């Protein structure tokens, strides 16, 4: 089955989160408001707007069993939204303030697996771990500060509700304890450590070539950690053994999610979700969920330089553009039509977020992606386009230059 | 309007400032050790080139290159040695040579290509030679290789 493609807007989708029953999706369209879209037939229609933030919303998460939305924004605040009846008996989303106590933008937010806590990453070199204080009817936070040296860009919860992974612009991914005495039971020992008071550092891992860490993710069991960084690399950590680094020939990934204990999907600046698989003895690229071998819509024939579909065409393409502009007064945009700027991938720009969509028997069978092109796409994870890593590389290369 | 306040370095008032040196692991070798390593490699490269073993010459010069502060002499020597290899390789041989290098060596070679392009007129730098290598290296190692040169703070 082909991926389901929906165009939500002409503006970038910064973040997306589906409702528990998948009938609604909350997105940030690069604005201060959360838009809630509802599925009507085969279309998504905007049905609700959550306005409270006064700066760009960076991240949204929708708790699946408690049906609450949490949003993080550059205005240094987070809100928890809950459906309540207003004075007229109408069901509305009502915000609750969160006392984050950070002095820089909030960058990423995720509910813990039990949904009794959430963590907010921020530019204040800190992660706020928030829990509910019923006496005052607000969410209070405890800050994880040490040893973070720069903006935290991504977080992910361990299934035990206590450990937290964080990726940061100081080129490191860390595993920390976010144990809150009032909320959590004493966690049983994990492979990452046995005594876990708040702010215990269970691991610190550096990206291979100095890239800031864009995204982190625990495997479903929590026994392995993956992170992707801006040096076009994906690293997988099994505690106690050397970090597995995969350096890619493509542009960097900014988001990833595990699909099984032995596979994950990563996506980013190359505009397509790429599947990795492996185990403790090694990992490799398997293929792409996107079939980039054929154009989705007719692509205008390119004049002249049709050469090999490799990155080398980058030079040739630019050369031809300038030569045509110089000698014939021809701009290639006017000359060959809009087909020239169409990518061979489904997403036409950077993918900002990939998230599990459908889980069957412990395996993620579908993932959803949202991108800077305003598209929301749902992919089947078992439809991997494999034709060898080499051809993937050249396809990735060719897809960038169109 | 007085705009001089814009020139104030606010970072000096930050007690918890992040220093450049915290962002990468510094070279465990002593600066004098780095320099003598670079000299040894120069000799090794000459011997390899005399046997016209370009891959061997490149591999030895691209292995643990000098980086970080205080090793400028070793850096210059390494760049100079590398340039002799690049300049003497025939254009037709470049793809084969690049393919024979490991991924780390390819990344390091790309670092030197960009370093060379940033220093026009220095030593035996020839723009067309560097661009020729750059084209072939990008075809084989991809754009990821260039991205890694931009992010890596271990500057050669």
Describe this structure in words.
Chain B: This is Arp2/3 complex 16 kDa subunit. Chain A: This is Actin-like protein ARPC3. Chain A: It comes from Pluteus cervinus. The complex is a heterodimer of chains A (402) and B (156). Chain A has 402 residues and is mostly beta strands. Chain A has a single domain (4-401), classed as Methylamine Dehydrogenase, Chain H (7 Propeller), CATH 2.130.10. Helix content of chain A is 8%, strand content 45%. Chain A has an 8-stranded mixed β-sheet with strand order 6-7-8-9-13-12-11-10, with no helix packed on it. Chain A has a 4-stranded antiparallel β-sheet with strand order 1-28-27-26, with no helix packed on it. Chain A is globular, with a radius of gyration of 22 Å. The two termini of chain A are 26 Å apart. Chain B has a single domain (29-151), classed as Alpha Horseshoe (Serine Threonine Protein Phosphatase 5, Tetratricopeptide repeat), CATH 1.25.40.190. The longest helix of chain B is centred in the last third of the chain and has 25 residues, at 127-151.
Write the topology of this structure.
The complex is a heterodimer of chains A (402) and B (156).
Chain A: E1 4-7, E2 15-18, E3 24-28, E4 33-40, E5 43-51, E6 57-62, E7 69-73, E8 78-85, E9 91-99, E10 106-111, E11 117-122, E12 127-133, E13 138-144, E14 152-157, E15 163-168, E16 172-177, E17 201-206, E18 213-218, E19 225-229, E20 233-237, E21 244-247, E22 253-260, E23 263-268, E24 274-279, E25 282-288, H1 313-327, H2 332-336, E26 351-360, E27 363-371, E28 375-380, H3 389-401
Parallel strand pairs in A: 9-13
Antiparallel strand pairs in A: 1-28, 2-3, 3-4, 4-5, 6-7, 7-8, 8-9, 10-11, 11-12, 12-13, 14-15, 15-16, 16-17, 18-19, 19-20, 20-21, 22-23, 23-24, 24-25, 26-27, 27-28
Chain B: H1 31-50, H2 54-62, H3 72-88, H4 94-100, H5 103-117, H6 127-151
Helix pairs in contact in B: 1-2, 1-3, 2-3, 4-6, 5-6
């Amino acid at each position: 089955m082909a991926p389901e493609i929906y165009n939500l807007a002409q503006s970038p989708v910064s973040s997306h989160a589906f409702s528990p029953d998948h009938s609604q999706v909350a997105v940030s369209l690069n604005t201060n408001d959360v838009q809630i879209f509802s599925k009507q037939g085969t279309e998504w229609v905007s049905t609700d707007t959550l306005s409270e933030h006064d700066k760009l919303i960076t991240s949204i998460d929708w708790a699946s069993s408690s049906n609450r939305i949490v949003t993080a924004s550059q205005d240094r605040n987070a809100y928890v939204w809950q459906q309540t009846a207003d004075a007229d008996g109408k069901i509305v989303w009502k915000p609750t303030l969160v006392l984050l106590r950070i002095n820089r933008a909030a960058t990423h937010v995720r509910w813990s697996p039990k949904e009794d806590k959430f963590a907010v990453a921020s530019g204040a070199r800190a992660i706020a771990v928030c829990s509910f204080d019923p006496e005052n009817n607000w969410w209070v936070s405890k800050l994880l500060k040490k040893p973070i040296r720069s903006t935290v860009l991504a977080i992910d919860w361990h299934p035990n509700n206590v450990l937290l992974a964080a990726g940061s612009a100081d080129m490191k991914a860390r595993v920390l304890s976010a144990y809150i005495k009032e909320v959590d039971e004493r966690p049983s020992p994990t492979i990452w450590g046995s005594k876990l008071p708040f702010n215990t550092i269970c691991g610190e891992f550096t990206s291979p070539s100095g890239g800031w860490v864009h995204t982190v993710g625990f495997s479903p069991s929590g026994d392995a950690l993956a992170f992707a960084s801006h040096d076009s690399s994906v690293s997988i950590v099994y505690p106690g053994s050397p970090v597995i680094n995969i350096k890619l020939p493509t542009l960097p990934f900014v988001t990833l999610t595990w699909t099984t204990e032995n596979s994950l999907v990563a996506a980013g600046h190359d505009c397509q979700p790429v599947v990795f698989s492996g185990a403790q003895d090694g990992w490799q690229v398997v293929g792409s969920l996107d079939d980039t071998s054929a154009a989705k819509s007719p692509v205008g024939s390119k004049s002249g330089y049709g050469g090999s579909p490799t990155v080398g065409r980058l030079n040739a393409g630019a050369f031809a553009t300038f030569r045509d502009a110089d000698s014939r007064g021809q701009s290639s945009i006017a000359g060959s039509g809009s087909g020239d700027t169409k990518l061979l991938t489904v997403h036409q720009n950077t993918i900002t977020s990939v998230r599990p969509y459908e889980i069957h028997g412990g395996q993620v069978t579908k993932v959803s992606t949202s991108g800077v092109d305003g598209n929301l796409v749902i992919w089947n994870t078992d439809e991997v386009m494999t034709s060898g890593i080499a051809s993937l590389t050249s396809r990735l290369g060719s897809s960038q230059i169109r | 309007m007085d705009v001089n306040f814009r020139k104030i370095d606010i970072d000096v008032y930050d007690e918890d400032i992040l220093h450049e040196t915290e962002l990468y692991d510094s070279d465990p070798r002593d600066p004098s050790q780095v320099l003598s390593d670079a000299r040894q490699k120069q000799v090794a490269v000459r011997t390899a080139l005399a046997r016209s073993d370009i891959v061997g010459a490149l591999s030895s010069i691209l292995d643990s290159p000098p980086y970080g502060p205080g090793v400028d002499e070793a850096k210059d020597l390494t760049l100079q040695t590398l340039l002799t290899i690049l300049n003497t390789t025939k254009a037709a041989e470049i793809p084969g040579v690049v393919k024979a290098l490991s991924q780390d060596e390819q990344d390091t070679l790309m670092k030197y290509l960009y370093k060379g392009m940033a220093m026009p007129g220095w030593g035996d730098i020839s723009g067309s030679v560097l661009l020729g290598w750059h084209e072939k290296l990008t075809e084989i190692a991809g754009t990821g290789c260039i991205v890694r040169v931009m992010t890596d703070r271990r500057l050669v």
